[in-house]
Amino acid sequence: MPSPQPDEATGFFGGRDFAAVIFDMDGTLIDSTPAVNRSWTTWAIEYQLTREQMSGHHGVPAAAIVAELLPPDQHAAAVDRITELELADVDDVVPLPGAERAMIELADAPHAIATSCTMPLAQARLRASELLAPDVLVTADQVERGKPAPDPFLLAARQLGVDPTDCLVVEDAPQGLLGAKAAGCATLAVVTTNPREVLAADLVVDDLSAVAWQVVDGRIRVVPAESADRAE
C-alpha cells in the first residue's frame, strides 16, 4: 500500500503533532549492520547454526534469539558470548542519513531511544557513532518483555512523562512496529534494513533524510525535509 502523501501546509500524518518521538536505534538511527553481521556470524558458527536458522530476527533482543535457537542449558553461556562479541566490535558504526538532523531538531523536545540492545551495548554503539543521544534510553535489560511486546515503548513513554498514544515511534523492523502498535503509538518506518512491503506502518519513507522535525509549543510535527529546507 502506498504511503500517504504529505500536504504542503500540514506535513505528514495530516498535520497531527505528537508529544514525543521514540526511535529504534540499530537500522533506524545508526548503521551497525557490518558489526552485527560479524558478531552474529561468529556466534552462529560457534554454535553450529545455519543461515536459515539465523534469519528473521532483526529487532529482537539477543536473549530472545538465544532462547529460540538453543536448549535451556546453553542460554546463559550463549548470551554471555554474543554480548562479548558485540561489545568487542563497534567498528563501522555510523549514523544513518537524517539521524543527526533528527537529534539536533528534537534536542529541546521529548524524545527517546528504545532498543533491543542491552544498556552497555547501546551506549557503546552510540559512542562509536558519535550521534547526539537523547537523555532517555530504554534497553532490553530494563524490560521484562522485549520487542515485539510493547514494553520498551511503554517504558520510554513513562520515562518521558507522556501518554504512549501521543507518541510517534520510528522503526525499521516489523517486530518493532508490532510492539509500537501494541503500545498504541503512531508509527513511521524507514526502509533501511527491510523491504517496504513488510513494514506495516502509518508512514513509510526511505530513511530519515526524507523528513524534518518541527517543534512548536513543545509539540512535534513531521514534515517533508524539502519543505523545511525551503522555509529556512
TrEMBL record:
InterPro entries, per database record: HAD-like_sf, HAD-like_SPP, HAD-SF_hydro_IA, HAD_sf, PGP-like_dom2
Gene3D superfamilies associated with the record: HAD superfamily/HAD-like, Putative phosphatase, domain 2
Superkingdom to which the source organism belongs: Bacteria
Gene Ontology MF terms: sugar-phosphatase activity
Pfam families: Hydrolase (PF00702)
Stated name of the protein: Sugar-phosphatase
Organism annotation: Naumannella halotolerans
Species lineage: Bacteria, Bacillati, Actinomycetota, Actinomycetes, Propionibacteriales
